[in-house]
TrEMBL record:
<dbReference type="Pfam" id="PF00005">
    <property type="entry name" value="ABC_tran"/>
</dbReference>
<dbReference type="InterPro" id="IPR027417">
    <property type="entry name" value="P-loop_NTPase"/>
</dbReference>
<feature type="domain" description="ABC transporter">
    <location>
        <begin position="2"/>
        <end position="246"/>
    </location>
</feature>
<comment type="similarity">
    <text>Belongs to the ABC transporter superfamily. Ycf16 family.</text>
</comment>
<keyword id="KW-0547">Nucleotide-binding</keyword>
<protein>
    <submittedName>
        <fullName>Fe-S cluster assembly ATPase SufC</fullName>
    </submittedName>
</protein>
<dbReference type="GO" id="GO:0016887">
    <property type="term" value="F:ATP hydrolysis activity"/>
</dbReference>
<keyword id="KW-0067">ATP-binding</keyword>
<dbReference type="InterPro" id="IPR003439">
    <property type="entry name" value="ABC_transporter-like_ATP-bd"/>
</dbReference>
<dbReference type="GO" id="GO:0005524">
    <property type="term" value="F:ATP binding"/>
</dbReference>
<dbReference type="InterPro" id="IPR010230">
    <property type="entry name" value="FeS-cluster_ATPase_SufC"/>
</dbReference>
<dbReference type="InterPro" id="IPR003593">
    <property type="entry name" value="AAA+_ATPase"/>
</dbReference>
Length: 251
């Protein structure tokens, strides 16, 4: 699904990613953990194609295709979804209209007709019920006046509607109370399948109690310095990151 080879990237001449290698297969959930400033959000932004970041070496293959020349929109149409750490407010555009536009633009890029209105409404109803979203919420302006939990739940609602091949969740757990965390995690788990993949970026092990990863990678100073199974997240919760830094120095 996703293969990253020796990825070096930065912004305004400052190198942030210093040789990332990772492979994510369909059906897998990968967690990327690391302290502040280690490059986690930069990695998600580079995969999604945010234009302020410059790739200086290496490549990103999505379903075997090099995506370097693709715009963020083209990557989204091919099935890459990024859930933002800080979703932006778009006054005057309702959640429902935003989703209709996003879905139909993707269908258009794939050479398909617009989704019939009755099918769209059925899908909106199903996915909002899945994420315990109140119907009134769907007529509100996108993210305007939303609480932190509502914004994050809305991001997962977008993911549910768009059904991406690869979903990248950038610190979806930040600012969530336990109830919102459970609802968001349940939504992600019910959307998991053998045909899609999820990359979860987080500081905290608590999210991984709900969305159990197949692999955990530790990012430090722009490099993946350790990988393991779900138990690695528990070890990080217990010991912090210092032992990995010391291990890295001694190696």
């Amino acid at each position: 699904m996703l293969k990253i080879n020796n990825l070096h990237a930065g912004v305004e001449g400052k190198e942030i990613l210093k040789g990332i290698n990772i492979e994510v297969n369909a059906g897998e959930v990968h967690a990327i953990m690391g302290p502040n400033g280690s490059g986690k959000s930069t990695l998600s932004s580079v995969i999604a194609g945010k234009e302020e970041f410059e790739v200086t070496e290496g490549n990103i293959l999505f379903q075997g295709e090099d995506v370097e020349e693709f715009s963020p929109e083209e990557r989204a149409h091919k099935g890459i979804f990024l859930s933002f750490q800080y979703p932006v407010e778009i006054p005057g555009v309702s959640v429902t209209n935003f989703m209709k536009t996003a879905i139909n633009e993707t269908r258009k890029a794939q050479g398909l007709e617009e989704m019939p209105a009755n099918e769209m409404l059925k899908k909106i109803r199903e996915k909002s019920e899945l994420l315990e979203i109140d119907r009134k919420f769907l007529s509100r302006s996108l993210n305007e006046g939303f609480s932190g939990g509502e914004k994050k739940r809305n991001e997962i609602f977008q993911m549910a509607m768009l059904e991406p091949k690869l979903a990248i969740l950038d610190e979806t757990d930040s600012g969530l109370d336990i109830d919102a965390l459970r609802i968001v995690s349940n939504g992600v788990n019910r959307l998991r399948s053998k045909d899609n993949a999820v990359v979860v970026i987080t500081h905290y092990q608590r999210l991984l109690d709900y969305i159990v990863p197949d692999f955990v990678h530790v990012l430090l100073d722009g490099k993946i310095v350790k990988s393991g199974g779900a138990e690695l997240a528990h070890e990080l919760e217990e010991k912090g990151y210092d032992w990995i830094k010391q291990e890295k120095v001694s190696n």
